[in-house]
Design goal:
The protein is α/β, with parallel strands linked by helices. The chain folds into two domains: 280 residues, Rossmann fold (3-Layer(aba) Sandwich), CATH 3.40.50.720; 210 residues, Orthogonal Bundle (N-(1-d-carboxylethyl)-l-norvaline Dehydrogenase, domain 2), CATH 1.10.1040. It has 19 helices and eleven strands. A hairpin with a 2-residue loop joins strand 3 and strand 4. The longest helix is centred in the C-terminal third of the chain and has 25 residues. The radius of gyration is 23 Å and the shape is globular. Its EC number is 1.1.1.-.
């Protein structure tokens, strides 16, 4: 089948939205690291709207830090792809044109550095997932990670986001080019400040290896480079072959990698861009002084509930979020989870949690998305600290029992153990899989094993309420092991009599 491309755009059906701007006149202004489905459903769509509004200096150069799959799919399509916005009422198709070119870092790190040092590049955005920030259990940079040690030894051919950012900033400073703004779009707490701290740590390690005459980089990164925090929100399920076939039939053209998403989207950004930025606020982006309250609400209410739905859903045999959320016990659990998490949010920030959770309930019920629970379950050891553990500790500090929050951690442990048994072997993955496998093989008593998992993942490290949280999790884990999620939920008075779980 003929592929989607600049040459074939005019042959698309009239109901498909297409770029109305001249793509040949667009100049790159943003380099994006981690050009996956979420970026293409979210930031790239916002930038597409800015380009259509005449801001033609903000085209995107996409960079894959690992796999060539996205480049291989989209390069023959001139970077074009279809964004399919789906809800229960139907589907709307839009072709996005904001990605001008795609690079694969392992194939040509020099090309990536050239894009990052180009004076036209004024913003670098990232969606590389939590695990790619290479944090140690204490939250600092894992200086012993093999990719970090590689980048310190080979600054001109880095593998990590830290290595690319540090080398590009060093080259820009040497050339007299102002630094770009670094805009983190991943689900990290205070993501801009977190990445800033990690990059300073990396720069200090790099400075320690530098020649005596070299200018130190850490102080420059600390004082001269802007790292605004942001909060992003849009549900983006993995694209399936059935999605590709359906989109191709509707377009009359092949699209190797369309993106499925929901109508809802949100982006809240701290407005600190010394080198300039697109007028995102014209298209629904909220520019603020402090993103913290919005970020906490999203992490603890949306992402926290998503993790709970994922792990309890997997253990209950539900393949997608809408099916799990339609389970009356899981639905009741989510309401109770929100009731525990909401008091941990800032109470003076004007957050409308009632409206927000009502909107989340509608989004979780979207039957058209088929958002797989296994997809959400990936990388739990990296996601749960900010989604669940932080809320649970805040609840304990306030003297409130985090009964539902702690069940999510227990369900994660149980779901990890269930792989290769009641769940497929590689149904979802985690950076700690090898270490977790070794731990599970020891068949420790539940309380001892829970403590070992906390140690391994760095959950609640050095927190004075850590042992109390471990005890809550271990109690839930006993119930899950004895009678699955139904027994654990029954112990909370959900879906059965509490006495049956005692």
């Amino acid at each position: 089948m003929t592929r989607l491309s600049d040459k074939t755009l005019r042959s698309l059906p009239g109901e498909v939205s297409v770029p109305l701007y001249d793509r040949a006149s667009v100049k790159p202004g943003i380099v994006h690291l981690g050009v996956g489905a979420f970026h293409r459903a979210h930031q790239a769509a916002y930038v597409d709207a800015c380009l259509a509004d005449g801001e033609v200096d903000w085209g995107i150069i996409g960079v894959s830090l690992r796999s060539p799959d996205t480049r291989d799919a989209l390069a023959p399509q001139d970077g074009l792809y279809t964004l399919a916005v789906r809800d229960s009422a139907g589907e709307q198709l839009q072709v996005i044109g904001s990605i001008l070119s795609l690079l694969v870092a392992p194939e040509d790190p020099g090309a990536v550095l050239a894009a990052l040092t180009d004076p036209r590049t004024r913003i670098v955005t990232l969606t590389i997932t939590e695990k790619a920030y290479l944090r140690a259990a204490d939250g600092g940079l894992d200086g012993n990670h093999p990719d970090i040690t590689h980048d310190l030894a080979n600054p001109g051919s880095p593998k990590t986001a830290h290595g690319f950012l540090a080398e590009a900033l060093a080259r820009r400073r040497a050339a007299g080019t102002p630094p770009f703004t670094v805009l983190c779009c991943d689900n990290l707490p205070a993501n801009g400040a977190t990445l800033h701290r990690l990059l300073i740590e990396f720069a200090k390690l790099r400075d320690a290896r530098a020649d005596a005459g070299d200018q130190p980089l850490a102080g420059y990164v600390a004082d001269e480079v802007a790292f605004p925090s942001s909060m992003v929100d849009r549900i983006v399920p993995a694209t399936t072959d059935a999605d590709r076939a359906r989109i191709a039939e509707e377009l009359g053209l092949g699209d190797a990698w369309p993106v499925m998403t929901e109508p809802f989207r949100q982006w809240v950004i701290e407005d600190r861009f010394p080198a300039g930025r697109p007028a995102w606020e014209r298209f629904g982006v909220t520019m603020v002084e402090d993103v913290g309250p919005f970020e906490d609400m999203k992490l603890r209410l949306l992402n926290g509930a998503h993790s709970g739905i994922a792990y309890l859903g997997l253990l209950s045999g539900h393949a997608t979020v809408d099916r799990a959320f339609a389970d009356p016990s899981i639905r009741q659990f989510v309401d109770a989870l929100w009731a525990e998490a909401i008091p941990t949010l800032p109470q003076d920030a004007g957050l409308d949690t009632t409206a927000y959770t009502a909107e989340l309930a509608e989004r979780f019920s979207n039957t058209a998305l088929a958002h797989r629970t296994a997809q959400i379950a990936n990388d739990g050891s990296q996601k749960l600290p900010q989604r669940i553990v932080a809320s649970a500790l805040a609840s304990l500090e306030a003297g409130l029992p985090p009964e539902h929050l702690s069940l999510v951690v227990a369900a994660w442990i149980a779901a990890c153990q269930a792989r290769g048994k009641t769940l497929p072997e590689a149904h979802f993955t985690d950076p700690l899989d090898a270490a977790l496998g070794d731990l599970f093989a020891r068949n420790l008593p539940t309380a001892e094993m829970t403590t070992a998992v906390f140690d391994l993942a760095g959950f609640a490290k050095d927190h004075r309420k850590r042992q109390t949280l471990i005890e809550f999790v271990a109690t839930h884990l006993v119930h899950v092991r004895q009678g699955g999620p139904a027994l654990a939920l029954a112990a909370l008075g959900i879906g059965g009599e509490r006495g049956k779980a005692e």
